[in-house]
Amino acid sequence: MGNRILTTAVLLIIVAGTFSCKDWFADLFEDEAYTLTREDYTGQEIRTDGYYYSYYKSGSDLVGVTIFYRNGVVIDGTGGRSLSEFDEVFSNGTFYNNNKNNKDIWGIFKVVNNEVMIERAIADGLMHRLAFIDYGKILNDTTIHIYKNKESYGNDVTTVKDDTLHFKQFSPKPDSTNVFIK
Q1: pLDDT confidence tier of residue 3, bands split at 50, 70 and 90
Q2: Residue 79 has what pLDDT?
Q3: How far apart are CA 104 and CA 131, in angstroms?
Q4: H helices of the chain, where?
């Protein structure tokens, strides 16, 4: 009888402790929220009738793509294909179907004073995503120079970048509808 009471008491303490730590556990697994708010883009500084691309390295035909939408949504952080391969997967719908549930590529952008800020929540390799902002200088409506990446919260980590995005007019772009950006 004594062991049964002791076991019950220990289980009650464990259950009570677990519920009291519920917020701590939620924070551990919850993705960081965006610091930018989605707003319709009505400017002319960048183009939205296609996509921007940057080469992974000199001499390679593999690119990464960034797609800006008039509704303030951006697809960014995807790559590893040639321009013609991207055109094909954009046209046939494969890209959207394979990525509509991939939170890592969806984000918000904002243009202020000839600079673009692109915020995404990126998996940190553990249990949740950290919010980061890429900062880019708009050189003209077809060229953007991404010069730094900064954590949106916390320890103020900034990384120097040197990526040039070039514009390619293209239609149809993948749909911007997703469950991550409201």
Answers
A1: low
A2: 79
A3: 10
A4: 2-20, 22-29, 83-91, 94-99
Which two three-digit tokens encode residue 144? 């953007």
What is the share, in percent, of the chain residues with pLDDT greater than 90? 48
Instruction: Give me the long-range contacts of 132-141 (CB less than 8 A, separation at least 24).
Output: 133/35, 133/36, 134/76, 134/161, 136/165, 138/45, 138/46, 138/111, 138/114, 141/44, 141/45, 141/46, 141/47, 141/167
Contact 28, 21 (CB under 8 A): no
Written as six digits, the tokens of 45 are 């500084």
Tokens representing 8 are 């019950």
Instruction: Compute the distance between CA of residue 128 and CA of residue 134 in angstroms, rounded to an integer.
Output: 19
* Owner of token pair 């952008």: 109
The alpha helices in 34-162, defined as continuous H runs, are 83-91, 94-99
8 to each of 2, 4, 152, 159, how far by Cα in Å?
10, 6, 45, 52
Task: Give me the amino acid identity at 43.
Answer: G
What is the rounded CA–CA span in Å between residue 16 and residue 12? 6
